[in-house]
Amino acid sequence: MSQPHFIVFANEKGGTGKSTTAVHTAVALAASGHRVAALDLDSRQRTMTRYLENRDATMRRLAKDLPQASYEVLEDHTEDALAAAIDRLSMEADVLVVDTPGRDDELARSAILRADTLVTPMNDSFVDLDLIGQVHPENYKITKPSFYAELIWNSRTARAKQTGKSVDWVVLRNRLQHIESHNLRRVGAALDELARRVGFRVIPGLGERVIYRELFPKGLTLLDLQQLGEVGIAHITARQELREMIAGLGIPGQEEQKLAAVG
């Protein structure tokens, strides 16, 4: 049996929209025809798990089927438990989405070593950029990569030696403002420079929209709204952002024509 494609969402900073993006990715890929499993490594906050539990509850309440991932939260924080959970979820999945805690965590490092696609969501600010690269205070150019970039570099090197496979590291610019600004351009230029030096791709993620916070209690995503008759102009624009983000991840076997037809 072939291993599923591992998508690991990891960032040691909290508040970057990591779990929300992980859920939207899992559901979008399920909607496109993938068999998707989700593993939550943050047993304290368990945001991804709660989101998907809310989704199950909404389906029961409405007596309506929606695209869904199988999911599990890792309660036992050991390497053996992580390996066992991955084995269980991999049995009937061709994509495994892993959400890691927003802190330095040994199991998160282990998950990163297994990643085929590593996604680091970040808010569009120099505060978040500092996690992966330091900038000059006057010209805003990169002075050196930060500790997290070095951690990922070492993890990618170790994986290449162990398996001969490369890791596609994607930095996701979440909470982008919809108005062009000096900060937007400066952060973008610094990220592009760092991407060339460290070796990651930069793609736009989910914009700064209230709708993402409102969807959580029902476990819904932007792809569900038309099915439920709740679409406005702003939702259509946000849904297109989601589609472009999923396409930008470039997951093997992605059936984009089906995704475009959903919602």
From TrEMBL:
Signal peptide: none
SUPFAM superfamilies assigned to the protein according to its UniProt record, in alphabetical order: P-loop containing nucleoside triphosphate hydrolases
Domain of life, per lineage: Bacteria
InterPro entries noted in UniProt: DNA_Partitioning_ATPase, MipZ, P-loop_NTPase
One Pfam family, short name: MipZ
CDD domains reported for this sequence: ParAB_family (cd02042)
Bilayer-spanning residue ranges: none
Full protein name: Division plane positioning ATPase MipZ
